[in-house]
Design a protein that fits this description.
- With 188 residues, the protein is α/β, with parallel strands linked by helices.
- The chain contains 6 helices and 6 strands; from the N terminus they run ααββαβαβαββα.
- A 6-stranded mixed sheet has the order 2-5-1-6-3-4.
- Helix 4 links the parallel strand 3 and strand 4.
- The protein is globular and about 60 Å long.
- It starts with a helix and ends in a 7-residue tail after the last helix.
Length: 188
């Protein structure tokens, strides 16, 4: 009887171990890693300075990283680069080249560091207000992951729109041209 109770207890305990859900990963890196398979073209990942506003569009999710901005950019680009399905389309604030060190100490050094980190990526620029408006609109239909950093230089945010890695803009144009030629509606 005693042996029966020991075996029953072990089976009971084993059931709890296997039935317990896996521990949820914590932190911003885990958030990026767990989000990557779900994100696709038209989704955004933003790496922003500490004063970036908390947006209220339903698809905008903000995560406080309490990390260095360059570290977060490096990690996100690595995660995107390791994915099979998305590539980054990078945009930065048009105001950044005009931010003076006298007004924001370290601005010149940051510009050099971010340029080095983004070397090899085409980088567009738009006025900050336009970018915020674009994110607000995108957040009404698509998921936007905002990673807030400890950065205290204004206009230093990195806006990454995800695009399809295995389907180029040229392939899309050719497809639309074929559809138009065949009399199909080709609007995207």
């Amino acid at each position: 009887m005693r042996r029966f109770l020991v075996v029953l207890s072990l089976l009971f305990a084993t059931g709890f171990l296997y039935a317990a859900p896996p521990a949820a990963p914590a932190g911003w890196k885990a958030k990026v890693t767990s989000s990557m398979p779900l994100l696709g073209h038209r989704n955004w990942i933003l790496i922003v300075d500490s004063a970036y506003p908390l947006q209220i569009s339903p698809g905008v999710e903000t995560v406080e990283t309490n990390a260095d901005q360059l570290e977060v950019v490096r990690y996100v680009l690595g995660a995107i680069g390791s994915s099979i399905h998305v590539r980054p389309v990078v945009t930065m604030d048009a105001e950044l080249p005009y931010v003076a060190d006298a007004d924001a100490p370290g601005a010149s050094a940051y510009r050099a560091q971010i340029a080095s980190l983004l070397h090899g990526y085409p980088v567009a620029s738009l006025p900050h207000e336009s970018l915020i408006a674009n994110i607000g609109e995108a957040g009404n239909q698509f998921h936007v992951l905002v990673l807030k950093t400890k950065m205290t230089i204004p206009y230093s945010s990195v806006f990454i729109r995800l695009d399809c890695k295995y389907w180029s803009a040229d392939a899309e144009r050719r497809l639309r041209a074929k559809m138009t030629a065949a009399g199909e509606p080709a609007a995207r």
